[in-house]
Design brief:
Blueprint lengths: L10 H5 L17 E5 L5 H11 L5 E5 L8 H23 L11 H10 L14 H16 L23 H13 L2 H8 L1 H9 L11 H9 L2 H4 L2 H19 L17 E5 L6 H16 L6 E6 L15 H13 L7 E5 L23 H31 L12 E4 L10 E6 L12 H27 L6 E7 L10 H21 L4 E7 L7 H25 L13 E6 L5 H12 L4 E3 L14 E3 L4 H14 L7 E5 L5 H16 L4 E5 L2 H5 L6 E5 L6 H6 L10 E4 L4 H5 L10 E6 L11 H20 L9 H10 L2 E5 L2 E4 L18 E7 L6 E6 L14 E2 L3
Parallel strand pairs: 1-4, 1-5, 2-3, 3-4, 8-9, 8-10, 10-11, 11-12, 13-14, 13-15, 15-16, 16-17
Antiparallel strand pairs: 6-7, 7-9, 17-20, 18-19, 20-21, 21-22
């Protein structure tokens, strides 16, 4: 043996910083087993290194000076309990940083758990491997719920655990429930799959002699150090420990703890001399590395007063470089000291403060890169989560608070001023979403409107069920498009929409009972239909998508295999929210998209010019003006010589109705006609021989009525156009007993009954028009869609006798108006007085009994 020594100050240089991982993608380096040999106080060297490593490097300091017993079993137990268990427990507890996770000793923990029992072999008549299966079940249960696998005495640390999985609190209850449901064999298979597969593939104790893992586990339970090769059992334990360490330092991108470990684990052994447990452990590590050829990251630094025996005495001093150069040959020769590298250290001087081999807390821990690698993924995760959260909140807000905004692309939050205040509203198309007003005044109307929409959604489900049960029935979609939200607290649009929705639902239910399932989508154009063109574009997109899907389905039926499921085609749009210029633009867009439109209360004379695919169920304003002119001339108590017509500038309906009234009254010989939008002019129009005709919107009627300051004996005759039926429906009539208002209605044809029959009846007729066209459609190779339904509408002149009278579109050649507006449609003059709950009918004109020969000039007087 060479007698050369190194000064204590050179120890640090010889060992270097082999616990530090060189780079990101470097393979695990081959670590020698250093043995620091010094006659006096050798364990001070490992103690100094223990302090030097600090908290950054995973390490454990273990005393390994126990003498080896003569008994093989006792030797194995001593090695396991006094060395290997402490190494696994120390390293597992030390490296507990969250970004890396603890080192898990799954293989070693299972091997140690099985070996600690040392049971006698089972009797031949026992159930095979019964004991092993029971203990494995207990082990699995302990891993799930963090129970201790071993019971140590007080000296070894009572309640210490070699390896513990322990689920987080939020998974503990589901795991307990699953433990009652999932059979034990399945739990064992899931938890023990990887360790069991490793045990059956490693080559110690000849695992292939066992049929399965429980059989191999039974061998480990039955005192293997007596009935098996004891050295093989020890090598199995050491191999399991090293394999767990190697597994912990293997990077796998699919693990959420993908951060590499920056420092290799260090095992510090004190009191290692020949004949001790330390020598046995070093020998076992050496043999396992030679025999398996697997790399592991463990750096072993031992200290002792005597060098361990060599197979052959080296001729020169062994250095780290010379050890590395000769390692490959030594491993192939299975040298018992291939990994052993002794360093003889000079004894400390007497009566002089000795130098330290390692300074305390001075380990060169360069963790800058590790911090970056830890921070960057966390920062990226925060950015992704924040970005996804911001996107979701934005989409959630833009799509009217839908929990799945990506599925609500046909709903958008429209905020004209971008302030997020009450001026915003949800517009678009709904197939389940309920358009609703903010809570406040008019809650009864808001709740009723929501109930009406919910009823339509329920009827949609029933229609779909009828279609599923009877595939031969035509199944189409009709869009109700109107004003369903408003920011104007005085608006009567919601009351009108409520009545129309009720009529749509009634027609939908009647069609289903007649074996014609109709699906109704509800579309909101916003206050005053200001978003009508955008919503019309979305309706067209839905119709095109349905047509494309149905075309693909028809093509698939000609090929083998299951046909593609067809969707319900969009065949038309009803509603349209009244006569406005922006509504005309939406009608044009829908017509360009191939969808017929049917206006419920659109009555302006020029509405039909918007599209050839447009129809209406309400009579035009010129017919309304003719009836009002007849009423003024023939049925008022006094001759009328003066008429003041109030109109709203810029409103297509109001301006057209005022123009028609002026033209009609001039034709009837009334010379003094004043058309104005000035409230003061209205206030000055007094006299029993004067008529005030209100041609504006219902929202302005209260203001119009409040301007009447004439004396009771000089009050004029008040007459209003059809739009104020919304005002009457909303019960906004002032409670003045001497107030009397006559108005035009398209839908109330009898003395008794509530005014709520009105708009709902018009909506029911509009739905029936489309339903009748679908029902009359005869398949001749053309698909059922908007254009084919329009073809049925345009070629059938005499349509139906509806709830609001006969609907006939055949005008002949003598009329300049197109065949898209009903001929001689029924019109009534209603009267409501202050404090009254309902109106009464005074005059009925038009074809209200499906009699084509009757004309507006042939009206029926029903008044007193």
């Amino acid at each position: 043996m060479l007698d050369n020594t190194i000064p204590i100050t050179d120890v640090k240089e010889r060992i270097g910083t082999r616990w530090q991982r060189p780079s990101l993608f470097t393979q695990v380096v081959e670590q020698p087993i250093f043995h620091l040999v010094r006659r006096d106080k050798p364990d001070d060297l490992t103690a100094q290194l223990n302090d030097h490593l600090g908290s950054g490097v995973p390490h454990v300091l273990v005393t390994a000076d126990q003498a080896l017993p003569d008994n093989e079993l006792s030797t194995s137990v001593l090695l396991r309990e006094q060395l290997l268990d402490k190494v696994a427990l120390g390293l597992g507890r030390h490296d507990a940083r969250r970004w890396q996770g603890r080192i898990r000793f799954r293989r070693y923990a299972l091997a140690s758990y099985l070996l600690e029992h040392n049971e006698e072999p089972p009797a031949p008549d026992e159930v095979p491997n019964r004991q092993a299966r029971e203990l494995l079940g207990t082990y699995v249960h302990g891993r799930l719920f963090g129970l201790s696998h071993r019971k140590h005495d007080a000296e070894a640390g009572a309640g210490a655990r070699v390896e513990q999985l322990g689920l987080p609190w939020y998974l503990l209850l589901p795991a307990m429930l699953l433990s009652w449901i999932v059979p034990p064999a399945v739990r064992r298979g899931v938890i023990l799959r990887r360790p069991a597969r490793w045990f059956m593939r490693q080559h110690y104790l000849s695992p292939r002699e066992s049929a399965d893992f429980p059989s191999f586990a039974q061998r480990l339970l039955s005192t293997p150090s007596v009935y098996e090769n004891a050295n093989q059992v020890r090598k199995l334990l050491v191999h399991a420990l090293l394999e767990d360490l190697a597994d912990a330092y293997t990077r796998r991108l699919w693990w959420w703890r993908w951060m590499r470990r920056d420092y290799y684990p260090v095992l510090l052994l004190q009191g290692v001399t020949p004949g001790t447990t330390g020598e046995l452990l070093i020998s076992l590590i050496n043999d396992v590395r030679n025999e398996t050829g697997a790399r592991d990251p463990l750096l072993v630094v031992a200290s002792g007063s005597e060098e361990l025996p060599h197979n052959t005495v080296p001729a020169t001093e062994i250095t780290v470089q010379s050890w590395q150069d000769g390692l490959l040959v030594a491993r192939r020769k299975r040298s018992p000291t291939a990994w052993y590298l002794p360093l003889r250290v000079a004894n400390p001087p007497i009566d002089v403060e000795p130098d330290r081999a390692f300074h305390r807390w001075q380990a060169p821990i360069h963790a800058t890169r590790a911090r970056i690698l830890r921070v960057v993924p966390a920062l990226l995760a925060v950015i992704v989560v924040a970005g996804a959260g911001g996107w979701y909140v934005k989409e959630w807000a833009q799509h009217c608070g839908q929990l799945r905004p990506w599925a609500g692309g046909d709903l958008i939050w429209a905020d004209p001023d971008g302030l997020g205040d009450n001026n915003g509203e949800c517009v678009g198309i709904s197939d389940g979403y309920v358009f609703s007003q903010p809570a406040g005044e008019g809650d009864a109307t808001r709740e009723a409107l929501a109930q009406a929409q919910n009823r339509i959604h329920e009827l949609n489900e029933k229609a779909a069920e009828l279609h599923r049960n009877q595939k031969d029935l035509p199944y189409v979609t009709i869009v109700y498009f109107s004003v369903l939200t408003t920011t104007n607290s005085d608006s009567t649009a919601l009351t009108a929409a409520l009545e129309e929705l009720r009529g749509v639902a009634d027609a939908q239910e009647e069609s289903r009972m007649a074996r014609l399932p109709l699906r109704v989508l509800i579309a909101n154009g916003g206050e005053g239909m200001r978003h009508a063109p955008e919503v019309a574009a979305r309706i067209n997109a839905i119709a095109r998508e349905a047509d494309s899907t149905n075309a693909s389905a028809r093509g698939d039926t000609q090929r083998p295999g299951a046909p593609r499921e067809a969707t319900s085609p969009v065949v038309g749009v009803v509603g349209l929210g009244g006569s406005r210029q922006i509504t005309k633009e939406a009608i044009t867009d829908l017509g360009d998209g191939g969808l017929p439109t049917i206006g419920i209360t659109t009555s302006a004379d020029s509405m039909w010019e918007s599209s050839k695919l447009y129809f209406q169920v309400a009579p035009p304003n010129r017919d309304q003006a003719a009836v009002v002119g007849r009423y003024i001339q023939d049925h008022l108590n006094v001759p009328i010589r003066k008429v003041t017509i109030y109109q709203e500038i810029g409103d297509a309906y109001s301006e057209n109705l005022a123009t028609d009234m002026r033209r009609e009254l001039i034709g009837r010989g009334i010379a003094e006609i004043n058309v104005t939008d000035d409230n003061e002019s209205v206030a000055r129009s007094c006299g029993r021989d004067t008529v005030l005709f209100f041609a504006g919107r219902s929202e302005r009627l209260n203001e119009f009525l409040s301007n009447q300051t004439c004396d009771p004996g000089e009050r004029p005759q008040l007459i209003a156009g059809d739009d104020i039926t919304k005002f009457v429906l909303n019960d906004q009539m002032p409670d003045h007993t001497d107030l009397r208002l006559d108005y035009v209605s398209f839908n109330k044809l009898q003395h008794s009954g509530s005014t709520s029959q009105g708009r709902s009846a018009l909506a029911r007729d509009a739905m029936k028009l489309l339903g009748q066209a679908v029902d009359q459609f005869k398949y001749n190779g053309l698909p059922l869609n908007g254009l084919t339904v329009w073809n049925e509408l345009s070629h059938t002149k005499s349509m139906l006798t509806g709830s609001t009278g006969a609907i006939v579109y055949d005008r002949g050649d003598q009329d300049l108006m197109n065949d898209q507006v009903p001929v001689h449609k029924a019109i009534t003059i209603e009267r409501i007085e202050g404090g009254a709950q309902e109106s009464r009918t005074l005059l009925v004109c038009g074809d209200h009994q499906a009699n084509k020969d009757q004309r507006p000039e042939g009206c029926t007087w029903l008044g007193d």
